[in-house]
Amino acid sequence: MLPRRLKYTLPLVAGLAAGGAAAGAALATADYAVRQMTAPARPRRPLQMGFTPFEAGVDFSDVTFPGGHDAPLRGWLLRRDPHAPAILACGGYRAQRSDLLGISSSLWRAGFNVLLFDYKGYGDEPGPVTLGYWELADARAALGFLMEQCPGAPLGTIGFSMGAAIAIMVGAREPQVRAVFADSPFTDQREIVRYHVARDLRLSPSQRTEVLAGVLLALIDRRLSRLFGFRLADVDPLRDVARLAPRPLFLIHGEADRIIPVEHTRRMERAARDAGVPVEANYVPDAGHCDAYFLDRNHYCARAARFFGAHLGVPPSSLAGASLNGHVAAVGPAVSGPGLQRQAAHPARPCIDPPGEVEGERP
Questions:
Q1: For the chain, N or C: smaller number of CB within 10 Å?
Q2: Beta strand extents in the chain (DSSP E only)
Q3: Beta-bridge partner residues of 279
Q4: Does the N-terminal peptide bond of residue 43 adopt cis geometry, omega within 30 degrees of 0?
Q5: CATH class for domain 19-321?
Q6: Where residue 202 falls among pLDDT bands split at 50, 70, 90?
Q7: Containing H/E element for 7?
Q8: Quick one: pLDDT at residue 326?
Q9: Are 186 and 260 in contact (CB under 8 A)?
Q10: What Cα–Cα distance (Å) separates residue 188 from each residue in 30, 122, 320?
Q11: Residue 350: its pLDDT value, please?
């Protein structure tokens, strides 16, 4: 028989040991999540060795300008008349500017100036990424550069996935932006990280798993703050979307999206309408993440051009050139209507998967 002291001490020690192991596991899991979230993109073929605006038959300039943290950013400026409306194209998580050549070249044909750029850590010089925090600062710097190149021109933003969230946040902060087109945005960084953590750990909904997810998010938040200087709450397009009013917002999202669930855009639409933002919303059945473009490129391109033309002032006659019409249709994203069937394959995507996804893997 155990001495009385040991009889009560051993269970306590065992409980503390178990608690310590659980705490260690939670810390390790949070550290892993942060490393996955901020790791650089895998090296890709150099941009100049792949599709460029030259292949799309577009007049352009290679440009370099200071980013949001003073690091130089590189991009392509698709040039029209400098007084013509100008659009900033915001790419997705771990994407490259070449991923947006399809939609951008079609908007150029419709009469718009378009700036495509790589955030710091993207493009040919991979580095740490932050799922919207550093990237937002770079997008605002890119908009400032676009305004210098096209002084007085009406401005719009277009974005995909993380880039859609950034397009909304840029518009909320920059009153010069007159219209925002957002394809598959997330509502806020906390919710999209929570979704991927729960999915990757296979946590079924319950009160216990909600507590565990809350603990992990708190640990992730602290680690992001310590390593990168920001909190999950700092990236919150759902909070910011109200600041777009009275400027218009176009939303589109695939109902079969497993990277950013369609409910994110439904919530964004409700919040925008409640704040008095004029909203056009399109939900595409059976479409996955940022797939609407690929289901009907010409329709998507034409719809995007009409949206910006209506709010930025491009003459309707120039919008006839908005479709791809045989030009490099396989490169980058343009709005698909309900009921379209998924194509068998598409060689490029407008955005890359958020944390928890293998880059390039189909959802």
A1: N
A2: 60-66, 72-78, 86-90, 113-117, 155-160, 177-183, 249-254, 279-284
A3: 249
A4: no
A5: alpha beta
A6: confident
A7: helix 4-38
A8: 39
A9: yes
A10: 18, 21, 36
A11: 39
